[in-house]
């Protein structure tokens, strides 16, 4: 089985210094920037994930760029999964290196399904203004990441822009202080489906908290989301949604996610044994 999981706000979390000190040994440092702590992981989650990796294939799946993913040392250097998906699906990394064949495939898919990036820039320039946009980055030649002041963001204008971008083949996702604008072909589902085919695996369990994770969770055989983030807010607005959510919110939601994956993985093993003996 494959366990494909988003990282930020799903398995790893930023924590204020005071909160990190209060939690002490209950968390482990996940990432440093310029020598300063940036994000953490529950100690229990780390141990559970380490154990799970002896039984299944763990694929971190993140909107971060390749360089930003490699910065998460608790995943990239300590756990060292063979496969990782970065750039929201734009890149598949194998043993720490990007897969060039997948990159060629992605460029072709984007060109076929989305309008040119300069047309997107022109549309965004009409809405995104320095009064509320702190920084804008074009990431890995695939998508835009904008850091914004949420309290100053013109919600109706951004909503209208998002609708127009969707008609142009680009999706918009608002996560905290970040607004992502991503070609529809660049998604977490297709990249995980590609690795699944490469490995010949049968089942996929997935977790994630944002709308960019939705296609991955919908693709998976088993899916669970933390009790926070875009997907949880969407569930509150539409209670008929079909997602499983953790009871816990915040950093310790990851403990429940991994316990759930352990359970479904064991169920799959038991079914296989029954099938083999019947």
Automatic annotation (TrEMBL):
Question: What Gene Ontology terms describe what this protein does at the molecular function level?
Answer: hydrolase activity
Q: Kindly give the InterPro entries that the UniProt entry links to this protein.
A: HAD-like_sf (IPR036412), HAD_sf (IPR023214), SPP-like_dom (IPR006380), TPP-like (IPR024197)
Q: Which domain of life is it from?
A: Bacteria
**Entry keyword set:** Hydrolase
Instruction: Tell me where in this chain the Sucrose phosphatase-like domain is found.
Output: 2-217
Pfam families found in the cross-reference section: S6PP
Name this polypeptide is given: Hydrolase
């Amino acid at each position: 089985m494959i366990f494909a999981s988003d990282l930020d706000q799903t398995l790893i979390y930023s924590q204020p210094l005071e909160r990190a000190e209060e939690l002490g040994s209950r968390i482990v440092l996940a990432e440093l920037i310029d020598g300063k702590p940036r994000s953490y992981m529950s100690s229990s989650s780390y141990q559970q994930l380490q154990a799970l990796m002896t039984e299944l294939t763990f694929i971190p799946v993140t909107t971060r760029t390749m360089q930003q993913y490699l910065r998460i040392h608790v995943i990239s250097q300590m756990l060292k999964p063979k496969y990782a998906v970065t750039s929201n699906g734009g890149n598949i990394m194998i043993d720490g290196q990007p897969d060039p064949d997948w990159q060629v495939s992605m460029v072709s898919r984007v060109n076929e399904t989305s309008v040119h990036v300069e047309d997107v820039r022109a549309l965004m320039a009409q809405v995104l203004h320095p009064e509320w946009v702190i920084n804008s980055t074009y990431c890995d030649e695939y998508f835009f990441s904008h850091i914004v002041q949420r309290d100053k963001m013109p919600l109706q204008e951004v909503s209208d822009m998002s609708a127009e971008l969707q008609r142009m083949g680009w999706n918009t996702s608002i996560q905290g202080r970040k607004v992502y604008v991503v070609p529809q072909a660049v998604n977490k589902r297709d990249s995980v489906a590609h690795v699944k085919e490469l490995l010949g695996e049968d089942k996929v369990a997935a977790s994630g908290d944002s709308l960019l994770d939705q296609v991955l969770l919908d693709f998976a055989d088993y899916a669970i989301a933390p009790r926070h983030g875009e997907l949880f807010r969407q569930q509150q607005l539409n209670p008929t949604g079909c997602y499983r959510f953790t009871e816990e919110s915040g950093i310790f939601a990851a403990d429940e996610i991994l316990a759930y994956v352990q359970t479904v993985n064991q169920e799959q093993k038991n079914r296989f044994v029954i099938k083999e003996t019947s």
